[in-house]
Amino acid sequence: MTVEEARAVRGEDGFDVGAMNSWLAERVDGLAGEPEVRQFPGGASNLTYLLRYPDRDLILRRPPGGTKAKSAHDMRREHRIQSGLKPVFPYVPEMLALCTDESVIGGDFYVMEKLDGIILRRELPSGLTLTPAEARQLCHSVIDRLVELHSIDPDEAGLSDIGKGRGYVRRQVTGWSDRYRRAQTWNVPSYRRVMAWLDANQPDDVRTCVIHNDYRFDNVVLDAGDPQRIIGILDWEMATLGDPLMDLGGGLAYWMQTDDGRLALAHARQPTHLPGMLTRREVVEYYCARTGLPSDNWTFYEVFGLFRLAVIAQQIYYRYYHKQTHNPAFKRMWILVRYLHRRAARLIRAA
Questions:
Q1: Of 172, 196, 274, 345, which residue has the fewest beta carbons closer than 10 angstroms?
Q2: Is residue 145 in a domain?
Q3: Residues 310-350: pLDDT tens digits?
């Protein structure tokens, strides 16, 4: 998140800045005056705001309005996970304050430090270029951080109780299938065959570890002076204890390649189509070589990742469809849901 990306707060996402500031000033030293509040436009799930004080910038996170998936948007959990990870995984932002008093702005929220750096979107920011060799090395760096996260001892981070243990794959297949059925609208596929295939072909968990569950380029912060160096990883709202290959599969659903076609690239959120970037297959091979985990059943994880992304997109579209949000960015998400169905069905047929 860069300051330049922050925009005026959407009317439906506003809150009482004065009440928030009074509460925060009692818990964070050195805050002068009332902040200018801006909103980052990428918030399709939890909402993210820039708090611009005269001498520092902070970040506030809070849930969206409207109907939400059960157990989603848990600010206390998101804050706790990052607080636990920070001492053992330095790429997590520092947590500053957690508010669980809904009378302040109408719901839980937390405030954290702002990491100043570069976040890559579909196109590189003005002034930044990457040679094919640099692009390839950046891919390796991004995957290396995921490998590092998956090697953390949950007990050391005080996070051994944030998951439900073995059976993660089974719970995910069942849970995301149920979510899709509840969020389905008339203009998207039923995904019936995809859900049946996932249910019939699910493997046992390969391992249980801390997983990010939303790991992609636009959640990675790069050093502005050295874009090959990662200084932060954002958006930990779905982090849990789970299967690392499921984490990788979920992340690769966003990894669009040049040969995916025009429709795929129109929905790209990261520059993985640039010359030198690894292909999805190369990412899997590199990750599995670094971790020693098997890649022979990769089709399952790839199909699951596509299905999971489709459910996320459909849940967002469901809120728009039922007028629980008016964000125009969500208006055509049903098209992405249909595209992901075609890709998943093609992989299943090939398998």
A1: 196
A2: yes
A3: 999 999 999 999 998 888 888 999 999 999 999 999 999 99
Same domain, 145 and 251: yes
Calpha distance 13→42 (Å, rounded): 13
- Judge if 172 and 85 occupy the same domain: no
Write out the DSSP string of 222-283. E-SS-TTSEEEE---TT-EEE-HHHHHHHHHTT---GGG-HHHHHT--S-TTSTTPPPHHHH
In this prediction, residue 28 has a pLDDT band, given cuts at 50, 70 and 90, of very high
Closest C-alpha to 12, from 65, 52, 57: 65
User: Which alpha helices (DSSP H) does the chain contain, by range?
Assistant: 17-25, 75-85, 132-150, 168-183, 192-201, 244-252, 262-266, 280-291, 298-321, 333-350
**Number of domains the chain is built from:** 2
Distance CA 46, CA 146 (A): 22
pLDDT in tens, 133-151: 999 999 999 999 999 999 9
Residue with tokens 């789970």: 242
Residue 304 near residue 246 (C-beta atoms within 8 A): yes
Which of these, 246, 81, 235, lies nearest to 176 by C-alpha position?
Answer: 246
Q: d(Cα 307, Cα 127) in Å, to the nearest integer? A: 36
* Mean pLDDT value across residues 98-110: 95
Q: What does DSSP say about strands 47-52 and 57-62: parallel, antiparallel, or unpaired?
A: antiparallel
Is 121 within a domain? no
Residues 267, 213 within the same domain: yes
> Which residues does 138 contact at the CB level (< 8 Å), separation at least 6?
130, 222, 227, 228
Range of 39-43, 104-108, 241-245 with top mean pLDDT: 241-245
pLDDT at 4: 56
In a domain, residue 79? The reply is yes
Asked whether residue 120 is domain-assigned, the answer is: no
User: pLDDT averaged over the chain?
Assistant: 92
Written as six digits, the tokens of 219 are 């959640």
Q: Would you tell me how many other CB atoms lie within 10 Å of the CB of residue 81?
A: 24
160 with 25, same domain: the answer is no
Residue 187 has pLDDT above 70, yes or no: yes
Domain around 227 = 132-350
